Amino acid sequence: MSHLTSFQIFLLISILKIAVVLVITLAAVAYTVLLERKVLGRMQNRWGPSRVGPFGLLQPLADGIKLFLKEDMMPLAVERPLFVIAPIIALSCALISIAVVPFGARTYVHGVDITQIADLNIGLLVILGITSIGVYGIALSGWSSNNKYSLFGSLRAAAQVVSYELALGLSLVGVVMRAQSLRLRDIVDSQGAHGMISWNIFGGLQIVAFFIYLMAAYAETNRSPFDLPEAESELVAGYHTEYSSMKFAMFFMAEYANMITVACVATLMFFGGASSPFGHIFDRFGAGIVAHAAFSIFWFVFKIFAFILLYIWVRATLPRFRYDQLMGFGWKFLLPIAMVNILATALALAYHPHG
Amino acid sequence: MQIALFIIFGLLAVAGALNLLFQRHPINSALSLVVVMMSLAVLYWSLGAEFLAAAQVIVYAGAIMVLFVFVVMLLNAGEEERTHGSKIAYIAGMPGAAAIFCLLTFVFLSNKTALGVTQLGGYLSNATSNIRDLSHVLFTSLLLPFEVTSILILIAILGAVVLARKEL
Predict the structure, then answer these.
(1) A132–B57: do the CB atoms touch at under 8 Å?
(2) Interchain CB contact of A129 with B (< 8 Å)
(3) Average pLDDT per run of 10 along chain A, which is 355 residues long?
(4) DSSP, residue by residue, A244-305
(5) Which of A62, A72, A138, A317 is the most buried (most CB within 10 A)?
(6) pTM of the predicted protein model
(7) ipTM surpassing 0.85, yes or no?
């Protein structure tokens, strides 16, 4: 590669990174759906999908083909351009935020970090911003469908996401104050010193913030127990009632991609990102650069997997909230606790600047 | 590269603003405004104000405009009718806009040295972090305006609560 300029190398590696991350994310989305169906099935004492391939492992492929071949229905009374653009907004917003996530230890190839697509100094704010843009996908889909159930679903979803965004953002402030940076790499590095005990959730005493984040994140992604926008007993299917074929699939993928993003952020902010829970004890076994990168990516994927299992477990366990309970919970409980947490963290940092 | 970014998003901002005026349906206008705000955020970022860019996206595009869209959806506002408007607007509109544009250009050009210049896109390649500087200024020399603004917002929240209470 000596005849290429450094910019060309950067461009090539970046395109490669984007392609690989996109493919892996979409595959992860497909298999998260299968995992959810399997685990939910086992929790409800039944098998879940088991026919296509060994243990039903090819089920996502079959689902994909089915959705792709379905007729793309377009109801007559819809607001056409917005109806088409809404699922695109939802899916692209869900996929863009993966770009700033560092999913492994720093690994340089020709001077380019291959374990992160873009290392931005406001990475966290970019994720929050893109999440807040994602509301438009839901809001517009409900309105443009010209269907009262869709409209109710999207109104609920938009109100819920806007309300819980506050608690979500405030719960992360304590972590940002500890790391003194909004760059996700710096936040991960600030928790990498001694393995598990220096993670923000344990050593950083951000356990309250973590639980606020967790609950707000469930509401942000419209997942059970906060899945009122798609409450099937009241609203048919919520904001995507009128959608069929690939447009429906895009909403479906957006939901699961959002789950993965939220799990990524939780891992980065509270669980040390790609750092090993054992600190540097086992570093001598992974001496080479490839082994080092592989181990860090393994830990990152392991933590994400644990979060997604937790998501599914919660869905199988908890009943749905009522709408006024949901709003009261967000505004009157999570938000004040998040503010108290910020104050406490600020005081602690002021008295022990390096504690 | 930076010039290309500037041209693309500058044109997008202008196109969005024009679309905002020409669209007849309020929801399309609101969405055009979102496009304008996002393009402005990119322009801020290319000038090195990355925190301002993020705040623009989160606060304006992500919160305020969502509420606009929300209200339009709730009220189910229909398409607006084309009216002729007032005579004064016809006569004074274009010259007035041109005069304001000329005045602003004159002020900016004549005070160029006092305002200082920034390099377009000079901050994209080597990342600076101006959040620390920003918060330092905000909590030292600009503390009073900052607190006054906070109290203003608090009063607005209380006012909203009082108004909503009356309805119940």
Answers:
(1) yes
(2) yes
(3) 74 87 89 88 85 82 86 80 87 88 78 78 86 85 83 83 86 85 83 76 80 89 78 73 82 88 88 76 67 81 90 86 84 89 87 68
(4) -HHHHHHHHHHHHHHHHHHHHHHHHHHS-TTS-TTTTTTGGGG-SHHHHHHHHHHHHHHHHH
(5) A138
(6) 0.84
(7) no
